[in-house]
Design brief:
Blueprint (H helix, E strand, L loop, with lengths): L2 H49 L12 E2 L2 E4 L8 H5 L7 E3 L10 E7 L11 E8 L3 E8 L2 E4 L2 E6 L4 E7 L10 E7 L8 E6 H32 L8 H18 L25
Antiparallel strand pairs: 1-11, 2-3, 2-4, 4-10, 5-9, 5-11, 6-7, 6-10, 8-9
């Protein structure tokens, strides 16, 4: 070996030792922060569980499913007045939710009268459908058709969405509700109808959004950290780690439904029905 080669090897040895020592120091210093971050992530869901107030002392189910029936397709798309008047009652038949994600077009559903909630609570009706699927809810009050106002939409996993409707005062006691659902395009969400309280809905929506936001932020932090490490260490694997964490964060945002309401990510809303391919 030439003298220059021997000198290069002699100089490379100390540099490797210095780099190895610096790497060990960085790893040791980052361990406490990593343990603290991991502990915070593990304990954060427990805070939401501990802070959740009880619903009715635990004696009643917070969400009660509503029995439903679907209008025959031969009846077409009648007006709300004709449906609410009760003249089409013989044309309703029992409705099975499993497999209803395959329904397309416009359909009318008759829902059982919602049960009373605890005093002081605000009852709401939930219609589980796909994102951007039109749902209208009608009731009977004083012998005329009354449209229930929608008060919000809650994103759910798998491209689903819970549409909230407030039950107004003045509806005829014991009278059923009627839902008009327009299913256009591909959907992966079966139709469900239920009744619950506004407090329970807001609590669940807040917890859902909070845990998704925290997880998305953690994944993005890991993705950015992995990309920045490439500036210090020359190993080409770190950008790939960053890409994996970034893709995981985007997948979680869309699969949970939260991403369709965020800036930039909302551009993919027209493809919301492809967020998942298994009915939920």
């Amino acid at each position: 070996m030439s003298p220059l080669g021997v000198a290069a090897l002699e100089d490379a040895g100390p540099r490797r030792d210095v780099l190895s020592k610096a790497t060990r120091i960085l790893v040791r210093k980052s361990l406490p922060a990593s343990w603290l971050l991991s502990l915070a992530v593990l304990l954060s869901p427990l805070y939401g569980v501990a802070a959740a107030p009880s619903q009715g002392g635990g004696s009643a189910e917070p969400v009660q499913a509503l029995d439903s029936a679907m209008l025959d397709e031969q009846a077409g798309d009648p007006s709300p007045v004709a449906v609410v008047s009760g003249t089409l009652e013989p044309h309703f038949h029992p409705f099975a939710s499993p497999g209803s994600h395959l329904l397309t077009g416009t359909h009318w559903f008759r829902l059982a009268a919602p049960a009373a909630v605890a005093p002081g609570e605000t009852p709401v009706v939930l219609a589980r459908s796909g994102l951007d699927q039109v749902v209208e809810l009608w009731g009977r009050g004083g012998g005329r058709a009354v449209e229930l106002a929608g008060i919000g939409n809650i994103p759910k996993f798998g491209g689903a969405e819970d549409k909230e409707f407030a039950l107004p005062q003045g509806l005829d006691p014991g009278s059923p509700l009627y839902a008009r659902v327009v299913r256009s395009g591909r959907a992966a969400t079966d139709l469900h109808f239920s009744v619950t309280t506004l407090a329970y809905v807001l609590e669940g929506a807040s917890a859902h959004a909070w845990i998704i936001d925290v997880t998305f932020g953690a994944l993005m932090a890991m993705a950015i950290s992995a990309l920045l490490i490439r500036l210090v260490l020359r190993d080409q694997i770190y950008p790939l780690y960053g890409a994996v964490f970034l893709l995981q964060a985007i997948y979680l945002a869309y699969f949970s439904g939260q991403g369709f309401n965020w800036p930039l990510l909302s551009w993919a809303r027209p493809f919301a029905n492809y967020a998942y391919n298994v009915p939920v």
